[in-house]
Amino acid sequence: MASAVQLRVGGGVGVVVIDYPPVNALGADVRAGLLEALARCREDDSVLCVVLRGARGSFVAGADIREFGQPPKPPSAIEVFAAIENMNKPVVAVIEGVALGGGLELALVCHYRLAVAGARLGLPEIKLGLLPGAGGTQRLPRLVGFSVAAPMILGGEPISASEARDIGLIDALGEGDLIEQAMALANSLRSTDGRPPSIRDLVQHVEGARRDLATLDAALAALVKRGRNRRAAEAAAKAIRAAATEPFEEGLKRERALFLDLLNSPESKAQRYLFFAERTAGKVPPKAASVGPVDVQRAAIIGAGTMGGGIAMCFAAAGIPVTVIDRDDASVARGLGVVEANYRKTVERGGLSRAEMLARLALIRGATSWDDLGSADVIIEAVFEELPLKKEIFGRIDKVAKPGAVLATNTSTLDVDAIAAATARPESVVGMHFFSPAHIMRLLEIIDAKKTGPMALRTALMLGKKLGKTSVVVGVCDGFVGNRMALGRGAQTERLMQEGVLPRDIDRVSLAFGFAMGPCATGDLAGLDISWRIRKAKGRVAPIADWICEQGRFGQKTGKGYYRYEPGSRTPIPDPEVESFIRSRAKSLGHDPGAVGDEEIFDRLMLPMINEGARILEERVARCASDIDVIWANGYGWPVWRGGPMYYADQVGLRIVRDKLARYTAKLGDERLKPAALIETLVGSGRSFADLPPNDR
Ligand code: 3H9
């Protein structure tokens, strides 16, 4: 038998163990091994019951994603699953760790399911631009009902073992001797005709859904609307509907056809690319490979503003006690008040239990005294974006922090080398650039400054993982990767407005591409005064953006920015005051408002980002193109089903990118649009960004 699956027979039970590192995915060897093990169990009269489990404390993480796009290798998952479902002896899935995607589908063809506390169960295929392709869309609704199954399939979020028990996805929570418990379960639930029960035969939920298809359709339509990859969401909804309207076998066929269509879609390819890109980005770089991270038992944050509070919430969610320090009691109280209000809103929405809120609040303490810093293993500075202030703060931190503590700055643009130089221990200083709102946004840019030591870097990476972030290590430059590229786009946004293009047109073109928000609405959300302050400090001028700030229009927080907002609403409404200013300014500069078409707007927003990304690679600020894509997909609303800006450029073709950049350089006389040397080199050698090996930063 293939070593990916082991069978142990004894005491009336056949224990089948899937052992296929790293995550027991259902690769070809696993599928073949399962068929063989089942055949042996079927023939062996001493086996009364089969237990299926995963090695190394985890069940199965799904299909082997690395096999997608390769010629299919028999046996198929469908074939193996049918063999399990039709087995003449009960098969019990014992779930530890994760049962995801094809892993949960495997558990659904078993006759009984048992999961231990801490296990996570779900169908995350939608996050890869797919739908469950081995019966998940047909069996899950039959087992737990359509109203529970549909959000699990279209949302892709896994649930806990106790939630799974509550909705009837598993038969029991496992504890103690799991094999014995599995056997007892199979015996106690044995059906009267002696044949093990199959989910495919359950009719109650199907009949219910058929009686009220309008409700199902409305629920599916609402979920599709929320889907990021519309094509995958629509396909998943169709498959779920088929579970209600078609016989089981027909539903399976429908699901399969929809799955195969998605598998070949450019959207899913892009999302699968991002899946592996995120894992590559999270790897410990060689520089930090030989050291262990600091064991972070206690954290401190300096600055109780929006960022500081959000970061504190990340620590509390990870169970790490954190002290938030600000200059006076009022600032601390204000900051912690915002944190508490955020939690309350989440509790009201059902996103957190009251008990969990209280537990998290108990982990966050406010203080005004710097003495508290002495016990922290990591200190994160999150004060205003002003270099002299940050340097002064690091000088003070240096005096009170314990030896070996990691000192992190949350700067989004400033020179981490200069900040580190304010201390006598620059090797302990690292950048940890969280994105706002910090407790929600997944991206963490970790800035590996010139003197950042391996321990500080390793700790930042470990913390990123603990805090549930997607981390990317980058080097020092103005704005690091994300903001530096956004700055390139920002310059063109400003320039387009000077030529009479309205914020709503810029945003419309961005939304049509798939961005969750356009750059103008994003600016309004983030607060326009922040970049105004940075521009003034750096002596930069942006006539339209500056005028908007001079009118006191700082975005949503003042009820107006590029747009206006009704009280209590976040919906941007085009504002005639701004639009007439833009139009008249354009005319005074000799431009014809309305002359720039959508294609040019799109190119001028997109190409500067790609060009800047190429320069970032040239300068080794980022390790590889896919790291840049991870940053944009996780921190800047880039549509995941388009992979990321560098991936997108490769799909368009670098020659086209280069030629367009050259054309806009000539037209606009803007040197920043001149094709980066790296793009010229790659075009010259017929290569793409993806062909570049990771550099050794
Ligand atoms: C599916 O099932 C389709 C079916 O409906 C139809 C057909 C049956 N395949 O994330 P980590 C690798 S679609 C291959 O760093 P963690 C990953 O690349 C699938 N490889 O660890 C990495 O490799 P490396 C539906 C996989 O502990 C290593 O495992 N399932 C797969 O933070 C460790 O990964 C999913 O979408 C895979 N399925 O998290 C689940 N999964 O070390 C996707 C992981 O070489 N996976 N790898 O870089 C996950 O969510 C997380 O990886 C998991 C572990 C929670 C499992």
Task: Jot down its keywords.
single chain; 697 residues; alpha/beta; 2-enoyl-CoA Hydratase, Chain A, domain 1; Rossmann fold; N-(1-d-carboxylethyl)-l-norvaline Dehydrogenase, domain 2; 4 domains; eight-stranded mixed sheet; six-stranded mixed sheet; 49% helix; binds (S)-3-Hydroxyhexanoyl-CoA
Characterize this entry briefly.
The chain is an alpha/beta fold and 697 residues long.
Describe this structure as you would to a colleague:
The protein is α/β, with parallel strands linked by helices and 697 residues long. The chain has 29 helices and 19 strands. α13 links the parallel β10 and β11. The radius of gyration is 28 Å and the shape is globular. The two termini are 44 Å apart. The site of (S)-3-Hydroxyhexanoyl-CoA has 26 residues, from β5, α3 and α12.
In terms of topology, how is this protein built?
Elements: E1 5-10, E2 13-18, H1 28-43, E3 49-54, H2 77-85, E4 91-95, E5 98-100, H3 102-109, E6 112-116, E7 120-122, H4 136-144, H5 146-155, E8 159-160, H6 161-167, E9 172-174, H7 178-188, H8 204-211, H9 213-226, H10 230-245, H11 248-263, H12 266-281, E10 299-302, H13 306-317, E11 322-325, H14 329-348, H15 354-363, E12 364-367, E13 378-381, H16 387-400, E14 406-409, H17 416-420, E15 429-434, E16 443-447, H18 454-466, E17 470-474, H19 482-498, H20 503-513, H21 519-526, H22 528-537, H23 543-550, E18 563-564, E19 573-574, H24 576-588, H25 598-618, H26 625-635, H27 645-652, H28 654-668, H29 677-684
Parallel strand pairs: 2-3, 3-4, 4-6, 5-7, 6-9, 10-11, 10-13, 11-12, 13-14, 14-15, 16-17
Antiparallel strand pairs: 1-2, 7-8, 15-16, 18-19
The structure holds (S)-3-Hydroxyhexanoyl-CoA (3H9).
(S)-3-Hydroxyhexanoyl-CoA is lined by residues 22-23, 25-26, 61-66, 77, 98, 100-102, 105, 124-125, 128, 130, 132-134, 136, 276, 279.
